[in-house]
Design brief:
The chain has about 280 residues and is an alpha/beta fold. The chain has nine helices and 14 strands.
Amino acid sequence: MTNHQISVCTLYSRRSTHLQNLVQGLIESKMHPLELVIICMNDSLPELPSTPFQIKSSVINSPHKLPLAEARTKASSIANGYFLIFLDVDCIPHPNLVETFAYHLEKEDALYQGSIRYLHSQWRKKWTFETLHSDSAPNQLQAEELTGNQRFIHKYEFFWSLCFAIRKSTFTKIGGFDTRFTGYGGEDTDFSFTARLNKVPFYKISALAYHQFHASYSPPLNHLADIVENAKVFYGKWNFLPMDKWLKQFAELGYIKLENNQIEIVKLPSEEEIEAFIKNS
């Protein structure tokens, strides 16, 4: 069954296997979208399997490694669906994800956060949905397990762009993601706060995706420059600093000076220093 109102949108950069898994998950969905919109960030579209839905792509060449805000807003502008589902390229959608988002989008004009289970580093690459579930666990901060068409009012501060849905008209009313946020960090919270300013309700629902494991950094020194610049943009709009835990860690490590809500980069970390904070599990 195809829902001709739905466009699934994802952003791609150098994770072809992850993207192929996302596409395979959509192929196996109980409800297919009208289309999958892929925005390639400083990259070209890899070879993908044939699908029962259209695949549409566009390329953004940017001086910024991950122009996330620009790419999400671009995805909306070329999507044909009335409903938009945004999935991180690392996400494999559960067979019920599209159907669950569609149910709620038709029921009420709101911003909807999906549910995520994180796959561990040894997850089975020849996956079934049964192995995905057994090889994963819910996020510790958002561990609520919802079923069916359950929903609850969610805190805007907890919005994550890796799995959410919204009506295209409402996305446009909000103004999309603010493209003054360049690279990684802060654009999610800015988007949800703008939704709140526009009185758009925000709910957590059971639309489930499995997040494919990849190494990350804690704190994310690999995104330090982006985080600092985006924090400044955010402060200019909302009069407080986001990502305060990361900023305090950067300051404690001596990479930035943080005083009276003012941020100054003291030095950038070397590749060796970044790798010292890698998380492989």
